[in-house]
Design brief:
Layout (H helix, E strand, L loop, with lengths): L20 E2 L2 E2 H29 L6 H21 L3 H24 L10 E3 L3 E3 L1 H19 L7 H5 L4
Antiparallel strand pairs: 1-2, 3-4
Helix pairs in contact: 1-2, 3-4
Length: about 160
């Protein structure tokens, strides 16, 4: 009778956790994000349905339909960006920031809307605020700079202060 051989560590089956990173997604974060989105949509609908009935021909769903469309578009873009290799985003940090600065300067020379220069109108598509592009660009640029200077991040003067 032969002695039982010990099972190698890598041959054991791993238990799958429900809340684990599956396919690159952080499931607890995704669930919390979707809950916050749902709560925000319900709150927005409850705050705007009476106004929509009064001003938009009795359509109490006017605002929530538009917001649901933008929420679905945002979630789709979020899921698309989450599967992109971060090295690609790392290379795009400076060009995206330069592009956002150009948009922020451009908006100053475009016609104002209600005496304010905030929006860029694109005929046939709609309008957007270049500050939204600048928010994404700034986050991308900071992540890029922090990854380049991660060893200096332990000091206040060289790690924290330049980002303020």
């Amino acid at each position: 009778m032969a002695a039982a051989q010990p099972v190698p560590q890598n041959a054991k089956k791993k238990k799958r956790k429900f809340f684990s990173v599956a396919n690159g997604f952080d499931m607890p974060f995704l669930i919390i994000l979707m809950l916050i989105l749902a709560i925000g949509l319900v709150g927005m609908y409850s705050a705007s349905y009476v106004y929509a009935i009064y001003w938009y021909d009795g359509d109490s769903y006017y605002f929530i339909k538009r917001q649901l469309l933008f929420a679905a578009l945002g979630v789709g873009i979020m899921l698309l960006v989450s599967v992109v290799d971060y090295h690609v985003l790392h290379k795009l940090a400076i060009p995206v920031m330069i592009f956002s600065w150009a948009l922020l300067v451009l908006v100053l020379f475009l016609p104002s809307i209600q005496n304010v220069h905030r929006w860029i109108r694109i005929p046939g598509i709609g309008q957007f605020q270049p500050s939204e592009v600048a928010k994404f660009g700034l986050i991308l640029l900071f992540a890029h700079l922090i990854s380049l200077n991660h060893k200096k991040m332990q000091t206040f003067l060289r790690g924290f202060l330049p980002f303020i």
